[in-house]
Amino acid sequence: MPRDCDIFCNVIDNYGDIGVCWRLARQLAHEHGISVRLWVDDLGSLAKLCHATDAAQDTQHCRGVEVRRWAEPFPEVQPAELVIDTFACKLPQSYIEAMAARQRSVWISLEYLSAEDWVSGCHGLPSPHPSLPLTRYFFFPGFTGQTGGLLLERNLFARRDAFQMDTVRQRAFWQSLGMEMPGAETLKISLFGYENGALARLFDVWASGTQPVLCLVPEGRILPQTGQYFGDAAPHAGSSYARGNLQVRVLPFVEQERYDELLWACDVNFVRGEDSCVRAQWAGKPFVWQIYPQHDAVHWQKLQAFLNLYSASLSTAASEAMQGLWLAWNGGGEAGQAASINSGQAWSAFAAVRSELDPRAQGWARELAANNLALNLLDFSQEIGRMRAFKIEGQ
Ligand code: TRH
Q1: Architecture in CATH for domain 4-151+371-394
Q2: pTM for the complete prediction?
Q3: 280, exposed or middle or buried, with CB in 10 Å at 0-12, 13-18, 19+?
Q4: Mean pLDDT of each 10-residue bin along the chain, 395 residues long
Q5: pLDDT of 297
Q6: 64-101 burial: b if 16+ Cβ within 10 Å, else e
Q7: What is the DSSP letter of 123?
Q8: 9 backbone dihedrals φ, ψ, rounded to 5°
Q9: Which of 192, 189, 233 is nearest to 211 (CA)?
């Protein structure tokens, strides 16, 4: 087991990069007793997920993790036994040289999550350094046993189930949002997303439906459009709106641990990017994923690959309904063939098969739970360490 670990995070945008790094850092520290140092170039992003972070401090300890500002010039430090660069960020040259000189670090590149087939072929591959005696290894999260799996805390399911069985805790959760706990007849939806042209039609169908809908919108990129729908030019945390059978409430962006409770408390969750999408899967509730759009539209293949896996065991009707809503929510489809899908109609089809989607969501979470990323990562790094020791002994 490595005694210490350096995790490097270059925040590209939003909260996904730091979200994954922070989750991994905490898990390695809390569940495996590893001394973790998290290097991050944008402490402001981390402060949103962990309010104890002071963005003005270069070095600090938060929740058992040493948090360091990643800035140039990079300080002279001793590399950890386990070194993780994330999402293709480039490590400082001086640090790479120190790793090569020390010859005790296992260097892993943690990649983006994808359900595409090629991932299993690339997971674990070595990439020797062109000039130094150093190898880094690609580690791919994923949904099958041939990949690195997903981040899952040891007691997450127990905490989730305890929350869902405890009405006192649920009531306290709703009260912390400044609301009374909604009745069972109300459909509770969380909606975390980017800008989205399909939002208005979704709101229309919820407003005109027969079932009351409470939609909780965390602060973020979808907020201006949310306000616009209700004629409010300055929506903010705490804003609330109503139209027909729809009530919308804007929530403050909460700390990362508390976001799970929101997912557990709702019946359907709209999520985005990478980490919130995984959390929605652990929640065991039907969800709708707004994928992070990439330039050359490669995200469509990623979306479709996930849909294929997830919906393989669904009936044709449920599978089509799920795919229809996901495509509508993502603005069409690879060839734009579904650009005209009306998100309101797609929602109605989705809602009609919820009795099948509910157990599928629970079964999916159980299936995936066996493939734990942190455990796999530690096993993998130990294996690399053993191989290297064997090689050195043999020389
Ligand atoms: O924020 P995202 O869209 O992140 C990303 C980034 O854009 C990144 O560059 C890209 O690579 C990646 O997506 C695919 O979505 P994501 O991944 O879901 O991250 C959001 C994080 O914010 C996640 O850890 C959950 C957390 N969160 C909170 O802590 N509190 C909240 O209230 C909410 C709504 C989310």
Answers
A1: 3-Layer(aba) Sandwich (3.40)
A2: 0.96
A3: buried
A4: 97 96 98 98 98 98 98 97 97 98 96 97 98 97 98 98 98 96 97 95 97 97 97 97 98 96 98 98 98 89 96 97 95 58 92 98 98 98 89 72
A5: 83
A6: ebbbbbbeeeeeeeebbbbbbbbbebebbeebbebbbe
A7: T
A8: -130, 120
A9: 189
pLDDT digits 0-9 by tens, 9-42 = 999 999 999 999 999 999 999 999 999 999 999 9
User: Which of 153, 219, 274, 356 is the catalytic position?
Assistant: 274
31 is a catalytic site residue: no
- pLDDT per position as a tens digit, 116-128: 999 999 999 999 9
17 assigned to active site = yes
Residue closest via CA to ligand 1's atom 8 equals 16
Strands 65-69 and 59-62, by their bridges, are antiparallel
CB-based contact 15:94 (threshold 8 Å): no
User: 305: which 2 tokens?
Assistant: 């690959």
Q: How many CB atoms lie within 10 A of CB 108?
A: 23
Atom of ligand 1 at shortest range from CA of 218: 34
Query: Where in the sequence of the chain do the CATH 3.40.50.2000 domains occur?
Result: 156-291+305-368
The answer regarding whether domain 156-291+305-368 maps to CATH 1.25.40.10 reads no
CB contact at 8 A, 50 and 63: yes
Q: How far apart are CA 189 and CA 267, in angstroms?
A: 6
Backbone dihedral angles phi then psi of residue 131, each to the nearest 5 degrees: -130, -15
Q: Which residue out of 17, 153, 261, 275 is catalytically annotated?
A: 17
Question: Tokens standing for 304?
Answer: 């479709």
* Pocket lining: 274 vs ligand 1, CB cutoff 6 Å: yes
Cis peptide before 2 (omega within 30 of 0): no
Q: Strands 287-290, 268-272: parallel, antiparallel or unpaired by DSSP?
A: parallel
